[in-house]
Design brief:
The protein is an alpha/beta fold and 1037 residues long. Among the domains are: 72 residues, no CATH class; 232 residues, 3-Layer(aba) Sandwich (Dna Topoisomerase Vi A Subunit, Chain: A, domain 2), CATH 3.40.1360.10; 112 residues, no CATH class; 190 residues, Rossmann fold; 112 residues, no CATH class. The radius of gyration is 36 Å and the shape is globular.
Length: 1037
């Protein structure tokens, strides 16, 4: 009697996919909640293979996993049964061998028909170049071929790259892979699995990768070291032993598996690329245990080495290879287990630092800054001079302006900063802007501005004292006219807007100071955002309807009016008519916009605003009559009838330009519109020098795109020591009064008398007791840049880091992406998706982020660059580059800090407040496992920890730590309870030895190779406890 696998599965209600050919059916992996039918079961023997995880087993094992009682029949087979079974097996085997032979023969014909890539093969060359590869590179040219092949996905013959699949001997073709373009659907295999090698087997190191483009990118980086390429995770998991022996016989002593950093697969909870690489390592070490084997992964999830090579170049690949490198030993070596990934004791671990550079001293960089500023002012294109805070770039630039003869327009962040600069330059004109002392209609203009109107510069045209031909000009206009003849004009950032009267006077090509150069100290805002609600649109529409009544025809002129007056009258009539026409045209567009807003989904996603090109065109061509109307006192024109808004031109302009740029969205029932900052647009348009320590990625890219330069100058900071503390985030969200009090108490305990930069609510609460003394508690957004208040402090505390909210992240990223797209620079799109717990390599540390980070690598790099820029500015308040005594910076918040010269010397556990409580609680969990023994439940452990003064612990955290405890138990041949007892004792000894200093104990545990289950002690079992009542789940086996 033979086994009826299909009958058994059908009888217990398990659906299966019938075999299309051969003797294998497909079912779901119900034991791991698998969604797809990726478990293959042999209908004759019952043997099975899970293609998602690589697990396999016998029929009895499958029955146990499925929870069914159906052992193999005990009935003895007859001779006829055995004969029939052997005949069917032999026929099936022969059919499979014949099919394989036909596929291999066809693959060899296809390989012979393909040819090497020549100059005439335009598609192949262009495709390789688009992937960042050189088609003429010797190692690549010796392997890849091209032809025209049939694409089953597209149903046509198309040009393709042809990659060989060799047998273990390295010479016999077993298959080929066609590549018609990017993506898995554009790759089709013919024949059998195999491998190929880029470069000869020379040297002592061999790299193994998954995927042909990944292999080509790595070969271009690590050459002449050879690179062995397999085509998928199956190729990694089944690396032939004969191939390993050939590699070892060729003199290779070190193998590096450069795996893909795949996302966690649904249902398995594992990363396919990393799991396949670990299986490959096991196979290699089973054959050649003496080999030195290492594994390395790209820094970002969802990224492979080809992505890094194409986007950031070979230097970035080399840095990432080194950053992710770790040794792997054979299972038989004590203390190693390739079946389980041992988590770090803490959410960070040391990695190899980048090679240190001998940065020049402060005195050496001053000539470099002077040269960079001279170069920036000598050309017509914009330039950024990048030098860290304290290097004196502002003073050097002031000296350059004072000693030179070139006319300059200098803009500083604030009027006080501008006054300081003007005082150092003899004869400089300080522009103070409109104020109550120099403008005779200041109160009126200020009121208009506060109502959302845009009176500048048109307000002066409606004022008797502001007109060009006025015989009684106000002090403001006198200063403006005088600025034309000054060599140096200094003002605040706001004076450099495109519609600024000062800029129009200073940039007048007919003025004496023609060719005036622009110097901007510190970056101005590069993006402005506005939110337009339905009620705003309603007010705009009412204002548009009322505007016609205000645009009255001028009175009839007497017949004896002189010619000059009549000309002015005609000009006024035409202006009124154009303004009336514009207002009449904008009104229906506002109605359409209101309808679109009312009909849009009222959700938190961003829906791009499209179909309003007419509105954008009107916004870009506002007639002077309407602008004069916006700059006029409404009550005076309308006889005191009292409506504030006519048509707010500033809002219309911003919305129109955002629609054109593609940065206008509907979100939560309102319109979000972003635009480039006005001063930043002036820098790109007119050139000049921007002095800033931390320009953004967008600023660098845009300046380079318009033909400008970025001069990066860095000085050594030997006295600076930065320590980062974790594992908390200390975010600004959810600051309830109770939590705010805890954070305020923690800051007081940590900071002592040191200055602090933290989030605004915490800083405000701390400053209530500050009195009138010097500023000590600053907040992000105001106090982390452009001041010298703490330049003599010996210690600075950064409590909580300025990470944008998820909504701000996406809006700002898409705005920067749109701005770069206009310059021909393509950044990847991002849908706002994020992942928790991503590990990001920094200079010397692998940091598991305490906050969710974007899944898109480009968006993640952009966000971390913004974060590092703000932190670097905060650190710069100490002016460490000028210090002769050690200075300390403590950063509280576990986020990866990458770039802008940040070098974290140490990462430690927090010692204050909640962190100390967590350490105590985790230690109590180990004791609970031991004391409760086999009676442990989730509720029982929770109550135990709580009764001992600890806190509540999440089940997920305990599950993670339980896995580590099991590994420790297996290594040492212990039961779970004995392992917990041993770890608890180790924890107590370490804490006692280091005076209850959790950070020092962690370092000692890491050095001793103790798993994370020790100090975090283990959040070990918590997750295994259910309820104490009958039916409660046991925690662990």
């Amino acid at each position: 009697m033979m086994l009826d696998v299909c009958g058994v599965l059908a009888a217990v209600g398990i659906n299966y996919q019938p075999a299309k050919s051969g003797s294998w059916i497909r079912i779901r992996a119900e034991w791991r909640d698998g969604k797809n039918k990726n478990v293959a079961v042999n209908i004759e023997s019952g043997g099975w293979v899970d293609h998602a995880t690589g697990d396999h087993g016998s029929w009895s094992d499958l029955c146990a996993r499925l929870g069914i009682t159906c052992p193999k029949p005990t009935t003895t087979w007859t001779d006829d049964d055995r004969r029939l079974w052997r005949t069917r097996k032999a026929r099936q085997k022969q059919r499979e061998q014949d099919a394989t032979s036909r596929r291999v023969a066809r693959a060899r014909r296809l390989w012979a028909d393909a040819h090497r890539i020549g100059e005439a093969d335009i598609w192949a060359r262009d495709y390789l170049i688009s992937r960042g590869l050189d088609p003429d590179a010797p190692a690549l040219a010796a392997v890849v071929r091209t032809t025209e092949g049939w694409s089953s996905q597209r149903g046509a013959r198309l040009p393709a790259l042809v990659w060989p699949m060799f047998a273990p001997d390295g010479t016999t073709i077993m298959g080929v892979q066609y590549e018609f373009g990017r993506g898995h659907t554009n790759k089709e295999m013919r024949g059998q699995h195999g491998h190929f090698r880029l470069g000869p087997l020379i040297g002592d190191t061999l790299y193994i990768v998954e995927g042909q483009m990944t292999g080509a990118a790595l070969s271009a980086t690590v050459g002449p070291a050879p690179v062995l390429v397999v085509f998928d995770t199956h190729g990694l998991r089944s690396l032939p032993a004969t191939l390993v022996r050939r590699i070892r016989a060729a003199g290779i002593t070190r193998i590096v598996i450069a795996a893909d950093h795949d996302r966690i697969a649904a249902g398995t909870g594992k990363r396919p690329g990393e799991e396949a690489a670990l299986t490959c390592i096991t196979r290699i070490l089973d054959v050649a245990p003496a080999l030195h084997v290492q594994i390395t992964l790209p820094p970002h999830e969802g990224e492979d080495w080809a992505d890094i090579h194409q986007q950031r170049g070979p230097d970035a690949v080399r840095a990432a290879l080194a950053a992710g490198m770790r040794d792997v030993k054979h299972k038989s070596v004590p203390g190693n287990d390739t079946d389980t990934n041992i988590l770090s004791l803490t959410p960070w671990q040391r990695i190899e630092r980048m090679p240190s550079q001998d940065w020049p001293t402060l005195s050496d960089v001053e000539p470099q800054i002077r040269q960079a500023i001279g170069h920036a002012l000598g050309g017509a294109d914009p330039a950024i001079v990048v030098a860290q805070p304290g290097t004196g770039k502002t003073h050097v630039a002031v000296d350059h302006v004072r000693m030179g003869t070139q006319p300059v327009f200098w803009l500083s962040p604030t009027l006080d900063d501008a006054a300081t600069v003007a005082a150092q330059i003899p004869g400089a004109h300080l522009h103070r802007g409109r104020n109550a002392d120099n403008c005779r209609q200041y109160q009126t203009i200020d009121a208009l501005t506060n109502r959302g109107r845009a009176p500048y510069p048109w307000a002066c045209a409606t004022c008797h004292h502001g007109r060009v031909d006025s015989e009684d000009p106000c002090e403001y206009m006198q200063a403006l006219r005088g600025s034309v003849y000054k060599k140096v004009v200094v003002g605040a950032h706001g004076a450099g807007a495109e519609d600024s009267l000062l800029y129009q006077y200073c940039a007048d090509p007919n003025a004496d100071a023609e060719g005036r150069k622009l110097i901007v100290d510190e970056s101005p805002p590069i993006t402005t955002a506005a939110r337009i609600a339905p009620e705003d649109l309603a007010q705009w529409r009412v204002g548009a309807a009322e505007a016609g009544a205000r645009l009255l025809d001028p009175p009839t002129l007497p017949s004896d009016t002189d010619t000059e007056t009549r000309k002015r009258y005609e000009v006024a009539c035409r202006a009124v008519e154009r303004a009336r026409t514009w207002v009449a045209e904008i009104a229906p567009e506002l109605d359409r916009l209101a309808l679109a807003l009312a009909g849009a989904p009222a959700d938190h996603d961003l829906h791009k605003l499209t179909g309003f090109e007419r509105l954008a065109g009107l916004a870009a061509n506002i007639p002077p009559g309407a602008r004069l109307l916006d700059a006029t006192v409404i009550e005076a024109v309308r006889g005191g009838r009292g409506l504030d808004l006519v048509v707010p031109l500033r809002g219309i302009e911003n919305l129109g330009s955002a629609i054109v740029a593609g940065t206008a969205w509907i979100q939560d029932g309102a319109i979000i519109a972003t635009n480039a900052g006005t001063l930043w647009k002036q820098i790109l348009k007119r050139g000049g020098a921007l002095l800033d320590a931390t320009p953004s990625l967008r600023q660098r890219e845009e300046v380079l795109a318009v033909g400008g330069d970025v001069h990066t100058i860095r000085a050594a900071e030997p006295m600076l020591h930065i320590t980062q503390f974790g594992p908390r985030l200390h975010g600004r969200g959810g600051l309830t009064p109770k939590r705010l009090n805890k954070e305020v108490h923690a800051v007081r305990e940590i900071a002592g008398d040191a200055p602090v930069i933290t989030h605004h609510p915490i800083a405000s609460a701390l400053n209530k007791e500050g009195g009138d003394g010097p500023r000590r508690f600053g907040h992000w957004g105001r106090d982390h840049r452009a001041h010298n208040c703490w330049q003599s402090a010996e210690r600075l505390v950064l409590y909580g880091l300025p990470l944008l909210s998820p909504n701000e992240q996406r809006i700002q990223y898409l705005s920067d992406r749109a701005a770069l797209s206009a310059q021909g620079i393509d950044w990847a799109d991002w849908d706002g998706s994020t992942n928790p717990g991503l590990v990001v390599p920094t200079d010397g540390w692998g940091i598991r982020s305490a906050a969710r980070l974007p899944t898109e690598p480009q968006a993640r790099a952009w966000l971390l660059d913004r974060l590092a820029a703000d932190v670097a500015q905060g650190v710069g308040r100490l002016r460490a580059v000028r210090r002769t005594e050690p200075v300390e910076v403590e950063v509280y918040g576990l986020l990866p800090l990458v770039g802008h010269g940040l070098r974290i010397e140490d990462v430690r556990l927090e010692r204050a407040g909640r962190a100390r409580q967590k350490t105590t609680t985790r230690k109590l969990v180990s004791e609970a496992i031991v004391d409760l023994g086999e009676q442990r439940t989730r509720k029982g452990i929770s109550d135990y920890v709580y009764s001992k003064g600890g806190g509540r612990i999440s089940n997920q955290t305990i599950d993670n730590m339980l896995d580590e405890t099991r590994v420790y138990a297996r290594r040492h041949g212990l039961t779970l309870i004995d392992a917990a007892r041993a770890l608890c004792q180790i924890t107590n000894d370490l804490l006692r030895e280091h005076g209850n200093d959790a950070m020092a104990a962690c370092c000692a545990a890491d050095a001793a190779g103790i798993p994370g289950a020790v100090l975090l002690a283990l959040l070990i079992e918590q997750g295994r406890r259910a309820q104490e009542a009958p039916g409660a789940q046991r925690a662990g086996p």
